[in-house]
Design brief:
The complex is a heterodimer.
Chain A: H1 2-12, E1 55-60, H2 79-90, H3 97-100, E2 119-124, E3 128-132, E4 138-142, E5 159-165, E6 168-174, E7 194-203, E8 206-214, E9 223-231, H4 268-274, E10 276-280, E11 292-298, E12 301-306, E13 312-313, E14 315-316, E15 321-325, E16 328-332, E17 340-344, E18 347-353
Parallel strand pairs in A: 4-5
Antiparallel strand pairs in A: 1-2, 1-9, 2-3, 3-4, 5-6, 6-7, 7-8, 8-9, 10-11, 10-18, 11-12, 12-13, 14-15, 15-16, 16-17, 17-18
Chain B: H1 6-21, E1 64-68, H2 89-98, E2 131-135, E3 139-144, E4 151-156, E5 173-179, E6 182-188, E7 209-218, E8 221-229, E9 238-246
The chains are: A mainly beta, B mainly beta.
Chain lengths: 354, 275
């Protein structure tokens, strides 16, 4: 229970960020006759004819922000890296960047629900593109023809150069230190990480981003994840200062495996009633789409998967209550027919059976 | 004020040095890269006396990496004459406190954003912590290296006014406009917790309004005139001029506070109450 609450605290650190200039219309956006932004209008172009990626974007990446390796086979993650993910989970994610108040590093593009990284503001000039994050970090992407240096001094944010491949901005990055995680689950990377991002503005309202990670000392092959971003019109970034939040890491006692102490055995006939797909009734305040939980039974145990992040075993604490959903609790209602509650320190989130 | 207390000056120096030492030694990355499109003398060096470049809309182009002159980080009021800076009594008291306790309550030591205007001059002279101006017609972005955490400000040039109610922040809300060839940036909406400078420890309140006037004198020089209108702390507005020079063929490097890892090492002697 303690571990459960603690893990939840990590998520609850993220207070809703209220935007200022909320009513200030974003200048230069095409609008429909009723004044609303026309998000399906063609992507705008800069005077030099390139697509203009400028704007404030809300990143949508429920799957990969939690598990960047969700599409990899376990054996494609080198053993030391797999062990480190397990260790970080057991340690309740205490060393996550937002707990230590250090930058997210290479994970900004894919970390959509980390406080301070939900949005990104792109400011595009011909030779330089800037990416601004709510946590006051920034990236410079140089488009003036310079090449990445061969042996860069490792940094949190890395070094980035960009070029245009047709209407797609291709950004190559290297020179990261090895202290950041690629996701909430704790997938590590080494200083040898190379990241390639491909940004394509589909229309005014949508930016597609493909991110390829190549880190042969940690993963046996490069892989690519896709993230979508939606234009956040008529609003703005507001500063979020991590060091303002008293994280009280000293109170984060216990281990994730402590959840097992209260485990009870539940009859297979009861577990089988819970199998199904559940969709969130009122979308989570920071998610662009309703979250989905799939419940299955594997080897007589309940297994859950939220937003395709990966299967996790649930730990029964009663016939209806479980823990282990990435630090969240699960309560089944009326044998699952009434849906389930995902329990979080901020309250219960109701999911209905699909 | 603004005369410096000799003891405080030494202590402040320790604090400031630690603020700089807190950074890992950073090697050059692209720091000798010859930026294209820059006027150069025959020997290849950037011609710092060349005329001010202009953006396509005819405005002066302030874009570049700028290094503020030394000394203002310690005391923004260093060039002021007696009577230029008049503090309310509580502010006088606060300044004395701030100068006598090894900067224990300097929010920058706790890795908070430096605030405005301090963020404009966190380096200086040989201690480089430059800022970079990225100018577009509707938005000017100020990227800061600072001696603690990298940070940025957005200056909206699209004609908007301040929001009626502003959630207080460290760096406030900035709107800008051109007055002739000078970029005038007005900032308000502060949380009142930042210090104006480091050694002197001039305070700021939520009532503060800061005006920064950026004038690029020639290719290599930028004057930054800073006016602080803060009736919560000062009897009248006061103005300082911080010259900045172009850091040619160079760029910002990364700085981050590593979670106050160095805080424990910062205070070498127990703090003694003032007599």
């Amino acid at each position: 229970m303690k571990a459960f609450l603690i893990a939840l605290t990590a998520v609850a650190l993220s207070a809703p960020v209220s935007a200022q200039w909320l009513d200030q219309p974003t200048a230069g956006l095409p609008r429909t006759p009723d004044g609303k932004p026309n998000l399906s209008a063609p992507a705008p172009r800069t005077p030099d004819g390139k697509p203009d990626l400028s704007g404030l974007w809300t990143k949508i990446s429920p799957k990969y922000s939690r598990n960047i390796a969700a599409d990899l086979k376990a054996e494609e993650i080198l053993p030391w890296a797999r062990a480190l993910v397990e260790q970080r989970r057991e340690d309740l994610g205490k060393e996550y960047m937002n707990v230590r108040c250090v930058p997210l590093g290479p994970g900004y593009t894919t970390a959509a629900d980390s406080t301070g990284a939900e949005m990104m503001k792109i400011v595009q000039t011909p030779g330089l593109i800037i990416v601004l994050n709510p946590d006051l970090t920034y990236r410079q992407i140089f488009l003036d023809g310079r090449a990445l240096e061969a042996a860069p001094n490792p940094t949190w944010m890395g070094y980035s150069v960009g070029r245009w491949d047709g209407d797609t901005l291709v950004v190559e990055s290297a020179g990261f230190n090895d202290r950041t995680w690629l996701d909430h689950d704790g997938h590590p990377h080494t200083e040898g990480l190379r990241m390639t991002e491909r940004y394509h503005r589909r229309d005014v309202g949508t930016l597609d981003v493909e991110v390829t990670f190549s880190d042969p000392k940690a993963y046996s092959k490069p892989w690519t994840v896709a993230v979508r971003a939606e234009l956040a019109a008529d609003t703005e970034l507001i500063e979020w200062v991590c060091n303002e939040s008293p994280h009280g890491v000293e109170h984060w006692v216990g281990k994730a495996s402590d959840e097992r102490r209260d485990e009870v055995q539940v009859a297979p006939a009861i577990l089988s009633k819970y199998v199904g797909t559940y969709e969130e009734q009122q979308p989570y305040w920071r998610a662009a789409a309703a979250r989905v939980v799939r419940i299955t039974v594997v080897d007589g145990k309940l297994v859950a998967n939220m937003d395709d992040r990966g299967d996790v075993p649930l730990i029964a604490t009663s016939e209806t209550s479980f823990t282990g959903l990435y630090g969240l609790g699960v309560e089944f209602i009326e044998g699952g027919a009434g849906g389930l509650l995902v329990k979080h320190v901020s309250g219960n989130y109701r999911f209905g059976r699909k | 004020m603004p005369a410096q207390h000799p003891r405080f000056a030494r202590r402040a120096l320790i604090a400031i040095v630690v603020l700089f030492l807190a950074m890992p030694a950073l090697h050059a990355q692209w720091l000798n890269y010859k930026v294209p499109g820059v006027p150069r003398a025959p020997d290849g060096r950037v011609d710092l006396a060349a005329p001010v470049p202009r953006s396509p809309d005819g405005k002066p182009d302030l874009s570049g990496t700028w290094n503020s002159a030394q000394g203002y980080f310690t005391n923004l009021a260093r060039d002021l004459k007696p009577g230029d800076l008049l503090m309310l009594p509580w502010a006088e008291t606060r300044v004395k406190e701030n100068q006598s306790n090894d900067h224990k309550n300097d929010p920058m030591v706790a890795c908070m954003p430096p605030g405005v205007p301090r963020v404009d001059f966190t380096g200086g002279g040989a201690m480089l912590h430059p800022f970079k101006i990225v100018q577009t017609p509707t938005l000017v972005v100020l990227l800061y290296e600072t001696s603690t955490n990298q940070t940025f400000r957005q200056v909206f040039m699209d004609g908007r006014a301040f929001p009626e109610e502003m959630q207080p922040t460290w760096l406030g809300y900035s709107i800008g406009r051109w007055e002739g060839d000078t970029l005038v940036v007005n900032t308000a909406g502060f949380n009142g917790r930042a210090w104006v400078d480091t050694g002197a420890g001039h305070p700021q309140t939520e009532a503060a309004k800061v005006t920064e006037r950026f004038t690029r004198r020639d290719f290599g020089h930028l004057d930054l005139e800073i006016t602080i209108d803060d009736p919560g702390a000062y009897l009248k507005p006061w103005t300082a001029i911080v010259p900045a020079s172009l850091l040619a063929d160079s760029d910002l490097i990364e700085t981050f506070c590593d979670n106050e890892r160095d805080l424990g090492r910062m205070f070498r002697t127990p703090v003694t109450p003032k007599p």
